Amino acid sequence: MEFRDIAATSGFATHSLRHPLEGLSSFGPTLNEATFGLLGSSFKPERDIPRETILQLAKHHPSRIYLAARTESKARDAIISIQSQLASPADIRYISLDLASFKSIRAAADKFQSESDRLDLLILNAGTMGNPATKTEDGFEVQLGTNHVGHFLLSKLLLPTLQKTVEQIRASGATPDVRVVSLSSAAHMISPTTFEELTSTPSLLSASTWHRYGASKAANIFFASELARRHPEILSVSVHPGAVKSDLYTHAKSSSSFMKYSLELVSSIFFRNTSSGALNTLFAATTPRDQLVNGAYYTPVGYRSDAGQYVISELLSAGHQILNLDLMPMSHPDVHTLKTDLADSGQVFNALSGQWQLHEPFPEGLPPRPDAVIHLAGYARNMLVPDNETFRANTQGTYNIVEAACKLGIRKVILASSVTVYGVSFAQGDADYPYFPIDEDQDVNPTDTYAIAKLCNERVARGFAARFGIDIYILRIGRVIEPEEYNDDIFYSYVHEPALWKVHGWSYIDVRDLGRMCDAALRTDGLGFQVFNATNDAMTNFKRTEEFLKEHYPNTPIVRALEEFEVPLSNAKIKRLLGFQEKHPWKKYFTLAEKKAKA
């Protein structure tokens, strides 16, 4: 069967339908009386996201911006750089601040309050990462002490000014809009699992560096939520900045460990580039208040995952035409987006049975009626929204897509599921796989809402495939890696601290190879309902697979011989039935990154 067109649902459900810079633009006229504090930043030329945040805010003429940082020379260089890019000078002031020191924090708060009685927006974006097991001068584990406790104390000291600003705005007859934005990270997913562990200095000091970092990022989320509960007049949200890209691994190394990090305060926002890096902070800072949930944690929103862009690019290069069904447009000249709410069955049905024969020329070029549907949209994990909303959104949209496709006579549907259905990710405590390699025949009984929703989708697909006699292929996707992520901090930990990454079976999928998997699925007919592990060939470790598994999981049986570096979450089925062959092995890119770091 030759596919003329694919209807792809490639977006991810979000709280907002606005691009962050749209929010900044509409919010701009109200900034004139505002005083901002971007507190705890440091600056490096190659990773200057705080500077970009200040630059974008300064373009809208706030009355004053305070920039607090540990290294004065870098902060003042950043201010000079920002001023050079503004049409007119902005009032940007430096305050000395070391978040690892209560003494410094108190001095910084006193300095600010001696100069200003107004604070409209407080951005807490400093941080440290990957440190040895040490303490701050006040006795806290250094990552939790800097990334959370320091921010907590600073916010507490500035709270009277924030509250006074609320009253000033209210007295003027306007609606108060005072905000605190806390920079968290997706690393909260690897934090300790109990509150006692998260808050115990001895426990943290005995944990791995990544668990300690994850604890600090989880604490950022808890702090933002509790601040909102106690002081609802102040909008408090936490944000994950997006894809991480850091040079921290080039810090001094020792022979006794993989790496040794300096304790220099560095920004906790790491992005692919400076222009995209500040977007989620700007989103939280400028989106109209009634469009935000007080106390919420936001992953990149008003934003389409680059993963969908890569998949679509691969499909276009393979000769397919694509109609994108999403609430956000796709910035690709060859893809038309039909704005569609996937949770609305009527909209989905109508979108897939649209007016394909219109003679009026459309500048974007309308594709023909679709022959297949690829559904990738949904909340990407637990804890982005309440569990019931995760379940509703991720199952309702999938049901609507599958039902509409079947009843409209579309003969192929490809659905994104997840390796979380194996029950090790998001488990209640530590869970083990029943055997290795992990294949699609394993009985699955996950306990978390996200994975249960994915499993429900698989059952829905199986029933509709049998009822209508069509092909529905399920891709159990794990950690999706984009090309630039091979050199980031998380992927480094995949390789050098593999015990932490049992949750995805030491597997990954290069986003370009995911696109090629979708293409292979489109071109292979007649398999009915099938489930495939969507992974690349090799495990993310330099040890041989059987050696690694026997060393770390001696009680888990290995039921067949494994190739030298074969991924434990097996992709043998997708290679056998769909003819998939990987093109982007991780060692091809990671080795180059390692050599570059050593140069």
Automatic annotation (TrEMBL):
Protein name: Nascent polypeptide-associated complex subunit beta
Pfam families registered for this protein in UniProt: adh_short (PF00106), Epimerase (PF01370)
Organism: Penicillium argentinense
Keywords, alphabetical: NADP, Oxidoreductase
Domain NAD-dependent epimerase/dehydratase per the UniProt entry, residue ranges: 308-524
CDD domains given in the database record: SDR_e (cd08946)
Assigned protein family: Belongs to the short-chain dehydrogenases/reductases (SDR) family.
GO molecular function, one term: oxidoreductase activity
